[in-house]
Design a protein that fits this description.
The complex is a heterodimer of chains A (109) and B (116).
Chain A (H helix, E strand, L loop, with lengths): L2 E4 L4 E4 L4 E3 L1 E4 L5 E7 L5 E7 L5 E4 L2 E4 L9 E3 L8 E8 L3 E3 L3 E6 L1
Parallel strand pairs in A: 2-12
Antiparallel strand pairs in A: 1-4, 3-9, 5-6, 5-10, 7-8, 8-9, 10-11, 10-12
Chain B lengths: L4 E3 L2 E4 L5 E6 L6 E8 L3 E9 L2 E4 L8 E7 L2 E6 L8 E8 L10 E2 L3 E5 L1
Parallel strand pairs in B: 2-11
Antiparallel strand pairs in B: 1-3, 3-8, 4-5, 4-9, 5-6, 7-8, 9-10, 9-11
The chains are: A mainly beta (109), B mainly beta (116).
Chain lengths: 109, 116
């Protein structure tokens, strides 16, 4: 079946640091890939997505590239802000969304 | 648009009681999803509907859980009888698509359920 594996957390960074959150997947077929973000006390929001190999999704300074050869969709941001503190979920869709376990990011001023 | 609306936001109940969670999807959306989030298991899909019809309920834990969507603007998730291990945050999400997850899903704020 489909599955998504995210790196273990939590992650704590200083403001303006570079961020990488790893995500790999296992799927049959050619799923679409997503990153969702959950701010404290809220539901999940779509951050970015990619629908086919080599596509790059980007939003709010975050980027992720759909790598079919490594079955990965790592999330990156060049300079994090305190307001980026949240839980980040990688997900894939075939019939419905399959989520990774999420990783908590804390950014210190 | 008000977004996906869930009620109640918090529910505390005793073991054995019936619990009903409610969801109003975004107007015009034709797919609705129920998820459960716990520290141990992360975010799990319980069931999803397309055009009010249940498409995949393989994530529903057991017969104590049931979900209905009587019309395009309302869905319920019922637990009867509830157990302490059902304590979690339950999210409802909706999207406009053909029944899969290819289009963006919009999540409600969740219902935090505590079963004592």
């Amino acid at each position: 079946g489909n599955s998504v594996t995210q790196m273990e957390g939590p992650v704590t960074l200083s403001e303006e640091a570079f961020l990488t959150i790893n995500c790999t997947y296992t799927a049959t077929g050619y799923p679409s890939l997503f990153w969702y973000v959950q701010y404290p006390g809220e539901g999940l929001q779509l951050l970015l997505k990619a629908t086919k190999a080599d596509d790059k999704g980007s939003n709010k300074g975050f980027e992720a590239t759909y790598r079919k050869e490594t079955t990965s969709f790592h999330l990156e941001k060049g300079s994090v802000q305190v307001s980026d503190s949240a839980v980040y979920f990688c997900a894939l869709s075939d019939q419905a969304l399959t989520f990774g376990k999420g990783i908590t990011l804390s950014v210190r001023p | 648009d008000a977004g996906v609306i869930q009620s109640p936001r918090h529910e505390v109940t005793e073991m054995g009681q019936e619990v009903t969670l409610r969801c109003k999807p975004i107007s015009g959306h034709n797919s609705l999803f129920w998820y459960r989030q716990t520290m141990m298991r992360g975010l799990e899909l319980l069931i999803y509907f397309n055009n009010n019809v249940p498409i995949d309920d393989s994530g529903m834990p057991e017969d104590r859980f049931s979900a209905k969507m009587p019309n395009a603007s309302f869905s319920t998730l019922k637990i009867q009888p509830s157990e302490p291990r059902d304590s979690a945050v339950y999210f409802c999400a909706s999207s406009l698509d053909s029944g899969g997850g290819l289009n963006e899903q919009f999540f409600g704020p969740g219902t935090r359920l505590t079963v004592l």
